[in-house]
Each structure stands twice: as structure tokens, then as C-alpha cells.
Design goal:
heterodimer, A: mainly alpha, 5 helices, about 85% helix
Chain lengths: ~90, ~25
């Protein structure tokens, strides 16, 4: 399955590669965090394709990246809320 | 003070064009 993923990616344009990786990662991320899945996927897609491939192959590394992404998103959200309170 | 971070990260939805693609150099 690994080589199938790699060879499918190799024949695609950089844009198509990101879309494919997103389509593959999204359901896995959704299973871990249904609420933030779309944001987490968007965030992870900013990483190198080779790292994204590694996450597809290793559920453990995917989980740790998803945890990191959730922490960043929550910190970001808290900051925005603090700024909004200041503005009011 | 800058509101640019509010739209970050670009959300990914299956079957929908992903906004983050604008940041990828061919």
C-alpha cells in the first residue's frame, strides 16, 4: 500500500499531491478530532509531503502531530478571544 | 492588532478546493 501511495503521488502535480494527501488524511484526523478536523488537516498540509506520507504510514506520528496541532489551535483561539475582550 | 491570523489555518474539506494551495510554489 505504501508504494501505491508513493507512486500515485509521484505522477501528480504539486497541487494534486496536496489535495490527495488531504483527502487521505482528513478521515483519519476526523476520527481523532471531529470538531477541528478541517482546521487540523489544513494546518498539517502546510508541512512537507514526505512528512505527510510518513504520518499516513504511521498512526502514532499522525496522532502526535494532531495533538500538537490541537494545542496550537487552542492557544491561537485563546489569544483571539483575549484580543476580542480587550477590544470590547 | 492584525487580524490576519483569524483566518489561519485554511480549512480543508474533502471535495472542496483548498485555499492553502495559494501558498504552494509550483
Amino acid at each position: 500500500e505504501k508504494s501505491l501511495i508513493a507512486s500515485t503521488l509521484a505522477s501528480a502535480s504539486p497541487e494534486e499531491q496536496k489535495i490527495m494527501l488531504g483527502e487521505w488524511l482528513f478521515p483519519l484526523i476526523q476520527a481523532m478530532n471531529p470538531t477541528l478536523a478541517s482546521k487540523i488537516t489544513g494546518m498539517l498540509l502546510e508541512m512537507d509531503n514526505s512528512e505527510l506520507l510518513h504520518m499516513l504510514e504511521s498512526p502514532e506520528s499522525l496522532r502526535s502531530k494532531v495533538d500538537e496541532a490541537v494545542a496550537v489551535l487552542q492557544a491561537c483561539q485563546a489569544q483571539q478571544e483575549a484580543q476580542q475582550e480587550k477590544a470590547i | 492588532s492584525n487580524g490576519s491570523s483569524i483566518n489561519w489555518p485554511p480549512e480543508f474539506h474533502p471535495g472542496v478546493p483548498w485555499k492553502g494551495l495559494q501558498n504552494i510554489d509550483p
